[in-house]
Amino acid sequence: MTIAPGSRLGPYEILAPLGAGGMGEVWSAQDPRLGREVAIKVLPDELSSDRERVRRFEREARAASALNHPNIVTIHEVGQDGGRDFLVMEKIDGSTLRELLVEGALPARRLLLIACQIADGLARAHEEGIVHRDLKPENVMVTKDGFVKILDFGLARVEERGMAANPATQAPTATSGTAAGIVLGTVGYMSPEQASGKALDWRSDQFSFGSIVYEMATGRRAFVANTAAETLSAIIREDPEPIASLNPRAPAPLRWTIERCLAKSPEDRYVSTRDLARDLASVRDHLSEAATSGPSVAAPSRRRRPLAAALVAVPILAAIAAVAFFLGTRAGRRPIPSFQRLTFRRGYIWSARFAPDGKTIVYGGIWDGKPVQLFSTRPASPESNAFSLPSADVLSISGSGELALSLGRRYVGSWETGGTLARMALSGNAPREVAEGVHSADWAPNGTDLAVVYLSETGGRLEYPIGKTLYETSGWIGNPRVSRDGELVAFLDHPLRNDDTGSVVVVDRSGKKTVLSGPWPSTQGLAWAPDGKEIWFTASQMSIVRDLRSVTLSGRSRLIGNSIGTLHDVSADGRALIGRDSVRARMVALLSGESREIDLSWLDNTIPADISRDGEILFAEEGEAGGGVGAVYLRKNDGSPPVRLGDGYALALSPDKKWALTAPINFSELNLLPTRTGQARKVERGGIESYQSAEFLPDSRRILFAGKERGHRARLYVQDLEAGGPRPITPEGVGAIFRRNVISPNGRFATGPGPEKGYFLYPLEGGSPVPIPGWEEGEIPIQFTDDGRSLYVYRPQETVARVSLLDLSSGRRTPWKELKPFDPAGSSAVLSVAIAPDGKSYVYGHAQMLSDLYLVEGLR
Q1: What is the arithmetic mean of pLDDT over 236-249?
Q2: Is the pLDDT of residue 235 over 50?
């Protein structure tokens, strides 16, 4: 069959030739059925006659067509006409990367924009088990708009020119019409294992990718010689000329990424091409920072420290600082501990545990805003291996190697998490689900029983073994650890939801609780010491970088090290897994009249509480900048800096904007801070022992709050600020919530959870509660609409807060807005949202937690 302009191939009308190569001719064609122009690759006769090759071609082409990635050319159809096999794909209006490289090296920014897209496309293919095997500049198209398309996935064939001794070698496609051109045009991008005739995997593509990016950065091929044999030998045995000597302005992190891709051994390249794509994206996103440090091989007279040296110095200085903080006043009296970093990606470590062999470490990581995933690593290697599981985190590992997992672990509060408890062998069998709504768990020494913490709307519950309740609290329970004799459970007792203030306690099998240390303003992380006579924990008076401390069962405590981080686990020989955390709470707002959200974060832990109709925002700084007691601020709508009103946690702004309702760290009282002139004053507490939430009524004279009297369960109260004490409006145990109870515009109803399930409108002046139709479990209210007919609602445990309007008469819901953190890496769920009464302004807060995992040895 002759291919020529005007002829037909199946239903396609051939228009004009686009190119030719060893895999056949490429033509532009018209698809009359859809009225679109496509590109058709027609296989050469010698390949079409080999039916095994054709079957492989069809299988791989169909696999590639399923990738559906914006940086991979879309394959529309694999067909046959008159004995001719052909491939139909999207027609790309642009240039090949080879054509762009004619003029030499590309500017760093353009290079990274192209390279990141290639890496993203490769990562997607590799995740689907497809290896390109023929990656080169000719197979990368760049459209006029700057979009990258990778061509010819799965089309590499066995080279028939005798270059490989192994008949199974998958050599690349030819790209030129002459023998010399065929060899030199392809072998320069082969990996060492491909050049040696060895089996290939995705890491071979990484090497080819490194060769391409090397050429983009320097204008020269990484491997080129006079003959094909010499080029192959160079690929196998020689390193290319250093990038810095050819292009001193190339950012150091980019050079390191290329060098890692060009490692001779596949084991020294990236374990995951997705990690490679992330590294490049990080260089792209921080290019201005990388560029300012100048070349790494600058003239000797240049005094400015190169970026490479600076980046190397950062972890060294961090380690020195960590050791210096760690030693404190104990310097010279004990060996210096060693810190070995185990993780290198951008995100947060939820939990980490030693496996029974003492060498393997299993941890749950939240990388780049994705759900938590389970990994294992060893100190001898910087790489981590992902488990083939859906979203999962490790809670505990038994002595026999059985994992207690949290499947689908997610935030349900500022610090609290929930998921499905499951059991699975470390060897990797499918997990077996055990219980829902589990916050944390720990194996007993017998490897059979589990101590489990459940978290519900009303608080936390510790069971040990499962089914036997040892302790309950209206707050939450963290880090349960069973003692080495199995008779005690140590844990962190947090009395308040949404807060990590807590004490170190133990409870025995009869339920007797003993407080050993605290309360501490911030405490996370707990484990039994190797000898079982002490409990190690990390706590701080105000900073998120906590000290490592210990306490005995008699209550005698000592400081082990300053500013360590967060303790995850302690091995039998005294090594510790420590997370070095960087936590910031961020505040984002859309103000009336504006079209874009803006980040209004003030200091280190900005927590929004309320927003007025005209866009004034009440918020608190609850981190280190808050001094350990919290600091309340009011941000006016005139663009001026926020005004500090006083100490405490912000709860609500009065509708007349004259007062801010606040509480101290332990929520033992309520305070009123003036926003303009006036004196701060306390709210008459009557018999109230503690509070959970508080809100102004529309008249600004009364408040609604959730609280409890001594010996009674929490409920809702209304109180006149000028006269009278608190007046209960719900029965005990009904209506109270640690988040806001929302009040209707007319001041007649307040929202609150029911005694068992569901949400209700509770009348403030007497009457029966009214169930809210259409309410879904896990939702909380944000605000009534101005007409009082609908509620803004959302799920606080979701990273993207999908706010809906819930009609109170019909239960019908209408999507209103999606609130999503600007930077997904390490960002937790959107935990607080406030909407102005007219719905034209809103503010929300979320935490961004970044951490690195360290193995620490030499602790005493």
Answers
A1: 90
A2: yes
Question: Average of pLDDT values for 298-305?
Answer: 29
Mean pLDDT of the chain: 84
Structure tokens at 415: 């610090």
Indicate whether 304 belongs to any domain. Answer: no
**Helix (H/G/I), strand (E/B), else coil: 297:** coil
pLDDT over 90 at 492, yes or no: yes
* Side chain identity, residue 409: R
Cβ count near 582 (within 10 Å)? 15
**Residue 855 CB partners (closer than 8 Å, separation 6+):** 339, 340, 342, 361, 379, 575, 576, 577, 578
Cα–Cα distance measured from residue 362 to residue 403, given in angstroms and rounded to the nearest whole number: 9
Question: Each residue of 87-125: pLDDT tens digit?
Answer: 888 888 888 999 999 889 999 989 999 999 999 999 988
Active-site annotation holder among 134, 152, 393, 581 = 134
CATH number at residue 77: 3.30.200.20
CA-atom Rg of the chain in angstroms? 32
527-566 pLDDT, tens digit each: 999 999 999 999 986 555 688 999 999 999 898 987 788 9
pLDDT tens, residue by residue, 575-617: 999 998 877 888 999 998 888 999 899 988 899 999 999 999 9
> What would the two tokens of residue 780 be?
């909380």
Say how far residue 511 (Cα) sits from the centre of its chain. 38
Give catalytic status of residue 134 as yes or no.
yes
> What is the distance between the alpha carbons of residues 246 and 366, in angstroms, rounded to a whole number?
38
Helices first, then strands: H and E counts in the chain: 13, 52
84 lies in the same domain as 114: no
E strands, 576-623, where? 576-590, 598-599, 606-611, 617-621
Residues 668 and 219: their CA atoms lie apart, in Å, by 68
Long-range contacts of 806-815 (CB under 8 A, 24+ apart): 806/772, 806/774, 806/775, 807/774, 808/761, 808/772, 808/773, 809/773, 810/773, 810/774, 811/772, 811/773, 811/774, 811/775, 812/774, 813/774
Do 454 and 441 form a contact (C-beta atoms < 8 A)?
Answer: no
**Domain identity same for 263 and 233:** yes
435 and 515 inside one domain: yes
Q: Which amino acid makes up residue 70? A: P
Q: Which amino acid is at 170?
A: Q
* Higher pLDDT among residues 208 and 828, named by residue: 208
Last residue of a domain, one of 497, 523, 549: 523
Report pLDDT for 401: 93
Q: Check: CB of residue 478 under 8 Å from CB of residue 524.
A: yes
Average pLDDT rounded to a whole number, residues 760-788: 92
Token pair belonging to 618:
């009440």
**Which residue, 483, 502, 523, sits at the end of a domain?**
523
Question: Where are the extended beta strands (E) located within 384-533?
Answer: 384-386, 392-397, 402-411, 417-425, 432-443, 450-456, 459-463, 469-473, 476-482, 488-494, 502-508, 513-520, 522-528
What residues have CB less than 8 Å from 702, skipping those under 6 apart? Answer: 696, 718, 719, 720, 721, 747
Same domain, 57 and 202: no
CATH number for the domain spanning 615: value is 2.120.10.30
Q: Is the peptide bond before 306 cis (omega within 30 degrees of 0)?
A: no
The answer to whether 675 touches 634, Cβ cutoff 8 Å, is yes
Closest CA to 263 of 307, 207, 184: 207
Single-letter amino acid, residue 374: L
CA 493, CA 506: separation in Å to the nearest integer? 9
Q: 858 lies in a domain?
A: no
Same structural domain, 735 and 828: yes
Whether residue 364 sits in one domain with residue 235: no
